[in-house]
Structure formats: C-alpha cells, structure tokens
Automatic annotation (TrEMBL):
Gene label: rps7
Gene Ontology BP terms: translation
GO molecular function per UniProt: rRNA binding; structural constituent of ribosome
GO cellular component annotations of the record: small ribosomal subunit
Domain Small ribosomal subunit protein uS7 positions: 3-149
Job description of the protein: One of the primary rRNA binding proteins, it binds directly to 16S rRNA where it nucleates assembly of the head domain of the 30S subunit.
Pfam family, any one: Ribosomal_S7
Species this chain originates from: Epipogium roseum
Protein name per the record: 30S ribosomal protein S7, chloroplastic
Coiled-coil stretches: none
Amino acid sequence: MPRRGMIVEKNTRYDPTYNNILVNMLAYHIMKNGKKSLAFKILYRVFLNIKKKTENNPLYVLRQAIQKVTPDITIRVIYKGGSNKRIPFEIGSTQGKMLAIKWILDASKKRTGQNMVLRLSNELIDAAKSSGYAMRKKEEIHKMVEANRVYIRPEKY
C-alpha cells in the first residue's frame, strides 16, 4: 500500500495533426527558444518530404527509424578505486526513445545540406534502412558495452 498518496499517470501530449506521441517528442527536441510552431512546421515538411521520397506513411518510417536506433543498454562512467570505470547499464524504453531521438537529430545536424528539412528527412529514411550516423552511434555504444562486459554486476548504481 503506497504511503505517499495515489499514483497518477503523467498527462502525455499528442501532436495536433497526427495525434501521435513520438511526433510530439521529436518536435519538442527540434524546438529552439520556445518556438513550437516553427518546430512543427519543420517536422510536417519533413513528413511531406518522406512521403515524396519513399511513398510510405511517414509515421511508419518515423516509428521504424526510432525503433532501429533505440538502444537497450548504455554506458555510465563511475569513479571507483581511483579510476573511472565504464559500466554497462540497461535502460528503459522511454529513455531509449529519448536517446534515439537525440542521436537522430544530432546526426541530421552533422549532415551537409541546405536546410533542416532535407537533412532530417534523409536521416530518418537512412535510420529506417539501418544505415546512417545514428545507427553508427548505436553500434559504437554496443561495442563499448561488449568491451566493458567485465564490469557488469547485478547491483544497481
């Protein structure tokens, strides 16, 4: 029996056009200086561009890209015994999706191109096909996890 009151679920928000949580999460990560309408304009243009290039549902491409880039384990650096140790940690689905969105946006910012719409649409299409910079980031993390398997312990930090 909980002693701190009732547990209430967070009020998750959906975007106005597609009524999807992932679209809203991506828009909030694109947003700079509180300009939400500009972030949604960029995102909807990205979806139109994806629709032209792949002739698939853009939400399907977005879901596929995020699912393929989402990590299930990550590395945390912990100071123990006079040295820094990289310890592999399992992460939840929400944190994994946040990391995937962050990696996709960082990869699209590193791409060369004219505007954010083209760069982000190309990165989402590449991530859905299991290629691109965001997938490389996931593979690097998994290689680091394999290299640091020695430090895995059942206790949590």
